Amino acid sequence: MPRKLHLSTTINGLPTEFLCEARQSLLEVLRDVLHLTGSKEGCNNGNCGACTVLLGGEPVLSCLVLAAEAEAAEITTIEGVACEARLHPIQQCFLQDAALQCGVCTPGFILSAKALLDRNPNPTEHEIRFQLANNLCRCTGYDKIVRAVQHAAKQAMASPEPGCIAGGSAK
Amino acid sequence: MTKPSQYKVIGTRPIRHDGVDKVTGRAVYGADVQLPGLVHGKMLRSSHAHARIKSIDTTSAEKLPGVFAVVTGADLPCLAGKMANLGEGAINLAHLSQNCLADTKVLYKGHAVAAVAAISPHVAEEAVKLIRVEYEPLPPVMELLAAMQPDAQLLHDDVFTNRLGEKSARPSNVSQHIHLEQGEVDQAFAKADLVIEREFRTASVHQGYIEPHVSIAFWNADGHVTIWTSTQGAFTVRQQTAELFEIPVSRITVIPTEIGGGFGGKIPVYLEPVAAALSRKCGRPVKMTMQRDEDFQGTGPTPGSVVRVKLGATQDGKLVAGQAWLAYDAGAFPGGMIGPGCMCVFSCYEIPNARVDGFDVLCNKPKTAAYRAPGATQAAFACESVIDELAEKLGIDPIDFRLKNAAKEGTRRPDGEVYRRIGIIETLQAVKQSEHYRSKTSGPNVGRGVAAGFWFNVGLKSSAAANVNNDGTVTLIEGSTDIGGTRTSVAMQLAETLGIAAEDVQPHVGDTDSVGYTDVTGGSRVTNATGKAAYQVGLDIKQQMAARAAIVFECKPEQVAVEGGVYRHQGQALTFKELAGKLPHIGEPVVGRATVDAGGATNGFGVHVVDLDVDRETGKVTILRYTAAQDVGTAIHPSYVEGQMQGGAVQGIGWALNEEYVFNERGEMLNASFLDYRMPTALDVPMIETMIVEVPNPEHPYGVRGVGETPIVPPPAALANAIYRATGVRMRELPMSPPKLWKAISRSAPPA
Amino acid sequence: MKDFEYSAAATIDEAVSLLARWGDRAKVLTGGTDLIVQLREGQREADMVIDVKKIPQLMESSYSREKGWRLGAAVPCHRIYEHAEVADAYPGLADAARIIGGWQIQSRASIGGNLCNASPAADSIPILIAYHATCRIAGPNGERTVPVAQFCVGPGRNQLARGEILVSLDFPPSLPRSSGAYLRFIPRNEMDIAVVGVGSWVQLNARGDAIEAARIGLGAVAPTPLVAEQASLWLCGKPANDDTFAQAGELARLVARPISDKRGPAEYRTHLVGVLTKRTLAIATKRARET
To answer: What CA–CA distance (Å, rounded) separates B363 from B723?
Structure first.
């Protein structure tokens, strides 16, 4: 059996250590070792975005990051987007706008949308579509997803949520 | 029939019941299932499109540390000559088995040949590479028309052409010839003022669900098999698996997980029997997850096609005769989508004299599966393009031409179906009056196209049961796996019936041991049929609740009046909730149940309008504006109805413009990834405007027709018609990808 | 995927000595967005993966108007277009950085990695060529530089010898009245591999109505990215207008020798070289007038 590496990271605000093989992706470790199965595997080669997580605040495809690269990294997964029991405005808007059907692409979209709104609180429709283009959805035709992000942006501008203290990173 | 406006729940937009789990990552999909002692399976797949298997040597794989079991086709029972009806007509079980694990021949690149269970997916993958297979390659049969030739290389020596129940003398790659006819076709064509005949081609395309196929199976020492799987139908998985292993269905429990998209592609079994065979060998639960290239190459795309349509009309724009010739590739085993293709080709119109011939053709591609209105889109691309050309040549507005000829109550289709109340006319009128259709297009390379589309929508069998809780809520258990929010559309119908809020129904999808038999989530049937079951559950509960109210009111049950969820008798009144609170003290618990066979087609019609711009220099199409209109009967949850229309339209746009299986001459798919298969991204489409038309289905208590499939049907023709308006070029082959469109434009008007 | 050793080198020397020791069995990991896919799909194999993102020189991006720009080989794409001065001075490279994969890819993928991967269709290379960028390479025998135009030697193959690593890409200072642009043709609007990619750089005369110098790089039309030499030279002294751009496009087509594959037929690719050359020249000229 291959030798295992020991990694120390912070995941969703919690210090998290794990063992992994060098060949294991961050996605594999999140799902199979840490049982954070909210990040989904849709293609395992970087083309669908279902495995999107934030690494140091940047959106990345966790299937294209080796877990070994995550030493000392801060990682946010879908499990850490809601602030304790309070949904993030993007999550609320996805529900209100019916922006999901099967839901398997949803975690990735929410993280990409969060990364977008964290940087650009008032994006145009084109900017939303451009920045979400690495997240494939086969059910919705994107219409309601784009609207949900637009609504979340509006909501966040109208009443900015206070930051989450621990365990999450909702802004 | 009550009017939609009288409903309290139906037509509203509650948050879906499973929503929070899905936006927080807590929903459990197939791959999320974790079990103690779980091991991982991987498939070895054929590198040849067509070959005889001479030998398989698994010795080295078995010896690799961490490997628990290896299986091949020899581990499944021999089912030669056994037929079974698995819900979509009789199929040869040997073919189903051979598709799961090849026995003597591989019939497509990616065909499963053997599988390994090991301690990790990586070890299983290493072991798969150690399996040695000796092949005797055979010429691959890739081209549809060539496969039909009498001297073509045969895929099977036990497949004969079935024509109207008669078997051909010699084996053939054509497994079926359908012939439909009504009226006096040849005479009618002779009398027509204008006759147009064209040939169309479409490529194989894939459903492209984002969640790969995944299954976990555990074959217990007592012989009971439990399967957790991402499927459109738990009961069909149970049936198929039972048939493949020749064991009773009662020995199998199928637990459907959340499903990350299906579109028809998650009805056949692929992994379930193989995981079960591995588990039987190693005594551990085995999880098998496809990689994306396996989803493309090892599961069922929808058929590529050649379709010829001939239509005749009078000078004043009345269709008098139609003729269609359709050949669909079924892939490696019989049973493509030719039947529905033949049913749907002329389904939007009243054509008194029509003839349809359809052919199910084998070739060395993956065995096809259903994909959203299976078979209809290929047919509509052809028919709706010819309709557009007729309208143009006759100088009639394309919507008016369709209105003149639209099918209506009493119209007889060539396959014999006579329509009951349908809504194509209302849908065409809605589009005609829409702001979009009345607006002007502008720009030198901008064009507008319209097309209609049809899917018959099925009924079939559903079961549901519900328990009344003493806090006034109701727990609903139904058998339809939920791909797009049907838990909620079903629960809303129960809530409406009981006069309670949608939120007070807690819907759950049961496994095969906890809910009555329910057919697959497919055919746009769930909100219709399972919704009808929920309605009947509601009636059952209402009756029982009235009996409990009678105890409180000290009257006879039939003296209790129920309206809007309030139970009354002579000035006494109890809300559903109040009454539920008394249940622990009055009478038996209340459990409602219902089973339905929702019967035949409900017939959904849609009309789409698209404005697009063509870059003449590159052949690239940009969609500027898109409207989808559809008669859905009654929209239970309008947001999810719109979502179905938008999602279907975008899948249709992908099919129209870029999606295709690209094969080389050896039959290898060259673009088996999301990167090169090119499904639309968010940047490739605009907002999709929707117009919900409601002509209630008289056969359903709330008028539901079903919605999911029709919206994929019109887009390819609508886009082709718009491209013609923009460029003067009629595209008759899908996809209308930039190189092809550029070439067609260059030929039509050489550069100045 | 076969397992391998993983090492995060802290210095160039450490990376060079690991590369020298492991030779072909080692692979350099920058963003990983190509390498991890290739390892997973068996297109490349490694016994040692050397992560170079901890090496300061590979992660630095230093720009000055006078000296030009030094872009560390592992700097992720998003840092290019988010760096306003750089994106202003080298907008053509920002064009490319914005469309290499989607946003998530750009959080990891680097221009250096895109270059070393040496795909004929790489989005960054035509515009690197147009900008006269050079590769700064460290190896067991010290440093050397190579023009980007000579760096790729075949599909998936580059100039790097055993023990060598790409440290940075160096760009000459952005001249007055000059600019660049990159366009690729893809059937979708995002998330695709270039059917053809063209990067153009122009420098205009003082009046802004004629071209003084130009350089055109082509992608996905040969085993390696190409310089359209003849078209570039022909442009010198020509009026900066649509006719000129179209004629330059015709000349650029002459060097294209594409193959037909799943991404497009050869004839179409050659045609697209003309279209994209014309269009990138127009954009670059417009930008040059605005500087």
So the answer is: 32
Structure tokens at B203: 């490529």
Is A21 in the C-facing interface, judged by CB distances under 8 Å?
Answer: yes
Q: Which residue has the tokens 């029509």?
A: B354
pLDDT at site B260: 98
Q: Which chains touch B (3 or more CB pairs under 8 A)?
A: A, C
Cα–Cα dist C250/C234, whole Å? 11
C66 interface with B at CB cutoff 8 Å: no
Query: What is the CATH number assigned to the segment(s) C5-51?
Result: 3.30.43
Confidence of residue A168 (pLDDT cuts 50, 70, 90): very low
Closest CA to C107 of C36, C38, C31, C162: C31
Q: In this complex, do A87 and B682 lie within 8 Å of one another by their Cβ atoms?
A: no
When CB atoms are compared, the residue of B28, B212, B259 closest to A102 is B259
| Pair of tokens at residue B683 | 């940047």
Report the pLDDT value the prediction gives residue A167, as an integer from 0 to 100: 41
CB B100 within 8 A of CB B332: no
User: In B363-499, where do the E strands start and end?
Assistant: 446-455, 461-468, 474-478
In terms of Cα–Cα distance, which of C137, C138, C154 is closest to C146? C137
Interface of B with C in 636-675 (CB under 8 A): 657-658, 662, 670-671, 675
* B638: enclosing H helix or E strand: helix B638-657
State the maximum Cα–Cα separation within chain C, in Å, rounded to a whole number.
61
With an 8 Å Cβ cutoff, is A105 touching chain C? no
Chain B residues close to A80, C-beta within 8 Å? none
Answer yes or no: do B687 and B637 share one domain.
yes
pLDDT for C171-202, tens place per residue? Answer: 999 999 999 999 999 999 999 999 999 999 99
CA–CA dist B501, B505 (Å, integer): 7
What's the CA gap between B637 and B655, in Å, rounded?
27
Spell out which residues of chain A touch residue C189, defining contact as CB-CB under 8 Å.
Answer: 133
pLDDT in tens, A119-137: 999 999 999 999 999 999 9
Q: What CATH code is assigned to C57-171?
A: 3.30.465.10
Q: Where are the domains of chain C?
A: 5-51, 57-171, 178-290
CB spacing of C49 vs A59 below 8 angstroms: no
How far apart, in whole angstroms, are the C-alpha atoms of residue B87 and residue B610? 36
- In CATH, the number for domain C178-290 is 3.30.390.50
B501 and B417 together in one domain: no
- 10-residue mean pLDDT series, chain B (752 residues): 72 98 98 97 98 98 98 95 75 94 97 98 97 98 97 96 93 97 98 98 98 98 98 97 97 98 96 98 98 98 98 98 98 95 98 98 97 98 98 98 98 97 98 98 96 96 98 98 96 98 98 97 95 98 98 97 96 98 96 95 97 98 98 98 98 98 97 97 98 97 97 98 98 98 90 48
Task: Please report residues of C whose CB lies closer than 8 A to that of A65.
Answer: 32, 36, 108
| Structural domain total, chain B | 3
Please name which of B364, B323, B358 lies closest in space to residue B164, comparing C-alpha atoms. B358
Please give the domain boundaries of chain A with CATH numbers for all domains: 4-80 (3.10.20.30), 89-158 (1.10.150.120)
Considering the domain architecture, whether residues B291 and B422 belong to the same structural domain is answered as no
Given an 8 Å threshold on Cβ–Cβ distance, is B683 in contact with C185?
A: no
Q: Which domain holds residue B226?
A: 33-138+210-261+266-298
Q: How far apart are CA B137 and CA B289, in angstroms?
A: 28
Question: Three-class SS of residue A73?
Answer: coil
A37 in contact with C at a CB cutoff of 8 Å?
no
C6 contacts A68? CB cut-off 8 A: yes
Provide the angle, in degrees to the nearest 10, between the axes of the packed helices B398-405 and B424-432.
Answer: 160
Residue B467 sits in the same domain as residue B585: yes
Complex ipTM, two decimals?
0.97
Q: Answer yes or no: is pLDDT of A57 > 60.
A: yes
